[in-house]
Amino acid sequence: MSINLSLKDYRDPWLADGILLDEAIGFFPREFYCLDNYSANKIEYDGWVYGTVEEAYQASAFKGVAEDVVELIRQAKSPYEAKQISLANKDCKRPDWETEKVVVMEELLREKVRQHPYVKEMLLKTAGYTIVEDSPKDTYWGWGKNRDGENHMGKLWMKIREEILSE
Hints:
This protein is mostly helical. It is 46% helix and 4% strand. Strands 1-2 form a two-stranded antiparallel sheet. The model has no long low-confidence stretch (mean pLDDT 89).
């Protein structure tokens, strides 16, 4: 798989201001990184413990139809590797995946909040703000390079946040 984005597509806006863009590559996670699917918050889901939400999500795409791929994802060394395994086997995904993936993601995010009080605390600190997955690469879960994506991830986080606040 090749990625057709330049290094500049990955940069935080403050790095793009002036000369820093040519001199620095940032790697320090942002304050709300715990809301990211790649954050190192183990999650128990469907009887298994996964290293991240991303790994659990990718495995769920093959549940019941390609258990060999599920096992490869469970053994992945990182969420990135889990996603690459998923992409390499995309033709084996469950037939209902496109209609069920948002439901699965919502379940996983709810579990993350339930299992990690810090994540819940950070989510509640976002009250009054729009939550955006600001990935320049993803217009479905995030808002994409042009900031006009669907932002399903942000919408799910805001839905969960509002439910917690109304309890």
